[in-house]
Amino acid sequence: MPEQRSSGGASRLAAVVVLALAALFVLAFRRVLWITRRSSWPPPADAVTAAGARAATEAFATRPGRRPRDAALDLAWSTAASIDPWVEGVQFFPRIFVDVDNAESSVHILMFGWREGEVGTKMADLLERKLAQGVEVRVICDSFGSRPYAQARAMFTRLADAGAEIVVNDVFPPDRDGLFPHGQRLDWRQDELGRADHRKLYVIDGKVAWTGGAGIEDHFQDGGFHDVMARITGDVVRQAQAVFLTSFHGHGGPLPADLSPYFPEPAEAGTIPTALVQVIPGGFVTAAQAIGEQIEGARTRLDVMNAYLTDREMIERILEAARRGVKVRVVVSEVSNNAQASAALRHRYRDLLDAGVEVWEMPGTVVHAKVVVADDVVSLGTVNLDAWALYRDSEIAIVARSAETAAVLEERLFEPDVARSTPGRPPATEDEQRQSRLWNRLAYFL
Predict the structure, then answer these.
(1) Taking the complete model, does pTM exceed 0.90, yes or no?
(2) Are β-strands 208-212 and 228-233 bridged in parallel, bridged antiparallel, or unpaired?
(3) Can you state the angle between helices 312-323 and 286-296, rounded to 10 degrees?
């Protein structure tokens, strides 16, 4: 009898453990993997204009209980005076450093990956000098991409000690809000769990913005990762400033009482129709829906370069474009840093090729750029065409109706990259076919 009671108690304990693990799995699935999306595009009639960006930021600052996901601003179409895309870190990093070095009042950096290598340390050193000159520096970094609590802690702590205000998006618990490293407090809601902030955005003096796919990391400088960053001026920069400041405040960063210095009237508002689009966890998917609309609108030309192209809906849109007679080119890595995503896409190569899509695989580098050119409409930023970027993580991109910008991207990016790439081939061996089929079925999780 005692043995039976002991066995029964052990069975009940095992059942409790199994149920607890199942509950944790369901909770994690709902919090991390579940896809939520609501109608987010086109912008509604009351969307935030460039002229209203400061007022929207001030209103956000007064909201009680604000969180990062509350910074999902509906942004109206605006204008850019210039959009200048640069390919490879040897081209864009020197220009970014010049803009930061020329800053007179504020440098705001929202960055998924900022590491303690040569480029990252150089940026930190430069920002320390700007702080000594009286320039304000604010930073949002991601705990997973930037490692501010681990390998890069010394770099970020040194920058904070010099006067930079830094907040962290905590992908893994514990979720801490407030200024890194000494002003943080535990957020019991743990609302950043599993949600990376993958955005890359610089706003300098409220006058110049940079966005694209590159982190402040050496592999973007030495050619290991192939990417694009674009320098932007004009009215849309005021909206970019609102994106940064609301996100910064959502993570517990303090905002000055007077925000007017951060939203100066641009010297030239510009005439290029430009929209700043985002994905913010919780169903705000303007970037996903805007890029989908862009692909659907292609009539003569569609060029797609993306690091991780696995989303079925996006692939179907690309197929439909080719079937209606659009010349479609897709540029990806020959050898990716995500073998599973590459295998999932290769499962669709036969469908793409049969529809008339040119699939090009670039050797010798990891294609990390996220660029779409559909006729004269351009999108570029941080948005991979996979489930994480389109629906789960925080992302940012610009969409511009600009024949000139489209031509520059063709000249600087697509034409030279296609010229040095080889045609993509469907999986040939039985093992390759089995692997690609498996990962394609798991695309929801990639």
Answers:
(1) yes
(2) antiparallel
(3) 20
For residue 5, what pLDDT band results from cuts at 50, 70 and 90? very low
Instruction: Name the CATH superfamily for 53-270.
Output: Endonuclease Chain A (3.30.870.10)
Q: Which two tokens stand for residue 76?
A: 């109206």
Contact (Cβ atoms closer than 8 angstroms) between residue 369 and residue 400: no
Contact 40, 289 (CB under 8 A): yes
Residue with tokens 């290991």: 224
CA 432 to chain centre: 30
Q: Which amino acid is at 33?
A: L
Token pair belonging to 406 = 């489209």
DSSP string, 276-308: EEEEETTTEEHHHHHHHHHHHT-SSEEEEE-S-
- Which H helix or E strand runs over 54? helix 53-61
pLDDT in tens, 71-93: 999 999 999 999 999 999 999 99
- Cα-only R_g, the chain: 23
Contact 209, 45 (CB under 8 A): no
* Angle value at C-alpha 301, between 297 and 304, nearest 5 degrees: 85
Domain boundaries, given as residue ranges, for the chain: 53-270, 287-445
Q: Which CATH number describes the domain made up of 287-445?
A: 3.30.870.10
Strand, coil or helix: what is 90? helix
331 secondary structure, DSSP code: E
Q: Give the pLDDT band of residue 30 (cuts 50, 70, 90).
A: low
